Structure formats: structure tokens, C-alpha cells
Amino acid sequence: MLRLAHTADVHLGRAFGYLGAAASEHQARLKRAFERVFELARQHECHAVLIAGDLFDSPRISRAWLEFALATIAGARLPTVVIPGNHDPAERSPLREVSLPSNLHYLPATQRLTLAHLELEIVACPAGDEARWQAFLHRDPNGASLQVGLMHGSMPSAGGQGTIAPEWIAQSNLDYVALGDWHSPQEWTQGRTVCWYSGAPEMILPSQRLPAVMVLVELRPQHPAQVRLLTTGEARPAAGAHEGVLVWDISRYESLQELRADLQAQLMPETVATIRLVGQWRAPEPLDVALLTEQLQRHCLWLEVETAHQVEPLTPHTPFEQLLLQVAEEAIARTPEQAPLYHEATQTALYLLRGGRL
What global pTM score does this model have? Predict the structure, then answer.
């Protein structure tokens, strides 16, 4: 049996500007996730590591990021095969001008690589060389007993055709195809050829599935590949979230402070949260979602608050607010056909008078 560790879309060197003050700590998480790929590979006695493109976020990464990547790969002492992605294309790859560790096989063009001591043959299909993929993506009847593809491209999805045709995978008759480009893990098995996107090993964008994983692949000649997903990333969705969204009923709250305290308790520094507010807001003070988001953001990695709640009709509490309501009622008496407009205007005015924002 042969075991492979499959990862992709690591994006070493990414700035994470959208995370603000949390960016530097998340860069540290990204480094730890990359190291964890090799730790898990050794723990599970993998024979090789496959990196399906976008090892680097850009060709213009700092020397420190490049040295970190090379030192991590060299320290693992496992055969590691890397292809270019669309973020680190072959013609400008940071790996072009440096001395590579002896265990790193960098394949900048579509080609076949045989690791004879493993009886493993790899068909490399890097980004930027798509015109040659289909001709190479097939089993060599005279090749190694185990043959896998290593590709960086997109499968067809809503709104696009993609750069990979699913029938290429089915017709290849390969034992496994390791895909890169999509940040969330997803299976694309076609026929007898098992095929997966590993996803990124740590959060690159908050829309991806979390926690991030790598793929552990077990291969035996004449048997379907067996796949397990192993957690590598530290970023997590909020506890109780379903498909990344935490639905929160606000009907029971009597103040914004209570709501904020309960939501804050759901957050940790590594939390990536989309919170959807539902129910009816009955507290006397307005529900200022922008302010709530700002106050909660400092307690987590990334936060978005969605408003799907209803606001309880506001009633006047002060003489001025009572006068405002009286003026509106007088206007409605004169022009009853405009009643909905005056009711909406009154509610908006009361909301703004109490510190609400539009």
C-alpha cells in the first residue's frame, strides 16, 4: 500500500489585508498549517506529499516566506512534488532561481515523473499549460503500477465551463487525481478514478469550508483509492453554526448589551463567523447592527452579521415623540390614502431619534 498526502492552495506570503489587525496572527496560522501537513504525513507514514499548485500567493513573496517553505519541505525528508498554480505561475515562480532541496520535485510544465523506488508515476498538469493536459492525462500501460494525476484548474461550476473536463478524469484510468484551485475540499471522482480537491490547509477566504483539511490517500494496485480528510487549519466556524452560518434569535433580549454579551461568548480569536439575526427586536433601544458588528469583530478572526429580523413597532416615550406622533395622525386624518407613508416616516423618525442608523 502507498500513502500520499495531498494539499494545494497554501498561498504562503498572503497579506490577508481584509483581516486588519488580525492579519499577522493569521499568517502565523498559515505557517503552522503548512507544517502540520508534513507532520500528519509523517504521522500517517506517507510515502510522498503532493502540492497541487498555489504553494505561494504570488511570485513576489518575500525571501523569508520562500526560505520557510524550502526549510519545511527539506526538514520533512519526504518526496514532495509541487506544480505551479495560477497564483505562482511557472514563468515567474519563486522556485525558479533558488537551489531546491533534494526531496523537492518541482514540475513547471506538463510532464510525467516516475518515483521508481515507490513504483509511482505522476502526471503533472500545472496551471498555464492547459492545452497539453488532455494528451498527457492517461495511464501508461508500460508505466509504474500506481499512477496519479496532479492538476491545478477548475471543474465546471455555475457560471463557468472550467479548465478541466470531467470526462478527462474518467478516461484517464489513473488511480487518483489530486486537484488544486478550489479552497474547499470537494470530490470529483469519475468512473474508477478517484479525484479530489484538497482545499487550502488554512483559511484563505472566509467563504471556504472550515476547518481546513488535507487529503490522505491510500493506494493499492487494482483497488479504488481510499481517501480520508485530516484537519490542518485552526480557523473555525462559530459553535452551533450550520454550513458556516450561526442563526441567532433576538426575540428574548431587552437590551443591546445583553445581545452583545451572548454573541461575544460564541467567539474566539480563531472564529470565522457569519451570524444571522432572526426573530423580533423588542428592546426600547434601536438595534444598531453596524455598531454591534464593530464591537464583536475585535473578539474573533472575521465576522459578518446578517439582518433577517423584524423590528417591533416603536411607541412614543417622551413629550416630543408624542407630539411627533400627533402630527402624523393629523396628517393621516387629512389624507388617509397616505397613512402607510406617514406610519413608516414616524417609525423611521423614532428610530433615528434613539440613535439608530440607516
Answer: 0.87
